[in-house]
Each structure stands twice: as C-alpha cells, then as structure tokens.
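lol so apparently i was supposed to do this last week
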Amino acid sequence: MRELETALVQLPAKLDPLRRDLEKLEGMLAGERGKLSETENWQKGQRDYIDRERESLRSAQTKFQASKNSKEFNAASREVENKRKAISDRETELKKVSEATTVQVTAMSSRDADVEGLRGELAKGEAAMADQLQSLRSQHAEALTMRDTARGQVEKQWLKIYDSLVGKRGYAVAPVIKGVCQGCHMALPPQLNNILARMQSIETCPRCGRLVYRKELLDPPADPAATTDAPPTTKA
Ligand SMILES: [Zn+2]
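anyway here it is w/ zinc ion bound
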C-alpha cells in the first residue's frame, strides 16, 4: 500500500524537470517576442517619419525650383540637401535594424520549434503516464480492498497493536531471519525463536515490539510454484 502511495506521488513528479525546461523556454520566447514587437513599433515609427520627410522633401524641391534669387536658392538647396541626408540616414539605420530583426525572427522560429518539441514530449510523457497512473490507482484500490478484507479477519486487539506500531515505528510486522528481528536487528531469545517455529501464537519482538514471524516458515525460499496463490491458468 505504502509503495503504491509513494509511486502515485512520485510518478507525476518525474515530468517536473521537463515542465520547468518548457516554462523557462516559453518565458524566454515571450521576452524575445516582446522585444521584437517593440522593435517593430520602432520600425513603423521610422517608416512614418521617412514618409513625412519625403513629403517635406517634395515641398523643399518645389521651393527650390521656384526660388527667385540666390538667397532663396541657397536656402532651398540646403533644405533639400538636409532632407535627403535625413532620409538616407534613417533608411540606413532602418535597414540595419531590419536585417537584425530578420536574424532574430529566424532564431525565434527555431526556438518556437524547440518549444513545440518539448510540448510534444511532455504531452507524450503525460499520456504514457496516464496509463501508468491509472494502473497504479487500480492496484491501489485493489490493495485497499484486500487490506480491508484481511483486517476483517484479525481480532480487534491485534489491529489496535498493529495500528499503534505503524504509527510509532513506520511498519508493524517484521520477519525474523536466523534468529534476528529484521525490524530492530536484535537477536531474539532462542526460546522465543522456538515459539515462533510452532506458529501457534502471535508474538512480539522484546526490543522493538513489532509482530514477528520466522521468514523461512511463511515465505519458503524454495519452489515458487508451491507458494503461488494465483488462480490456476487454463491449459490448452
Ligand atoms: Zn525487533
């Protein structure tokens, strides 16, 4: 029961490292996406600026063509020159940023693929685990039924002792191997070991208080076929 309960907690936790990786990668991507959208806004602003500058370049060119004297001509000429330079500078900068953005978009799409891969892996792991978890849950339910049935066959006073030992010692029953209690590793008095061999009474370890039994009498190491309590299989 305890092993099953531990497995039911530990199994879903196995995917936690994958979940953490995915979360980290998704966080990074979201950050990059945010920066990219800032850059795109900036680019849009720059393009709008360039459009406005082109508009004002056209009006400067009109002024230039309409200049009536050298003073107007010089002023208009400077204005046209300045506008051209401003536009050209912006375009150069915008081109650099656009190239960098293209690189960034490519890198991000590769990272998107990584995230997709991890998501797939996680979903696959969860699906595989769902079957395992389901099987553990039904094993647990089965064990619970078996335990309750077994408890129904034991006198209340021993159940009380058993439960109190579980609470105090973690587990209540200990096998004895070669005269040694496996719960506390103390050698039992030889007389007690002999009483255990008769298998007529429930005995407790004098040191740890656990319910003890001689392992070789309950779980004979010999022929496994002799101890199986599985229903006989139908043979063809
Ligand atoms: Zn003991």
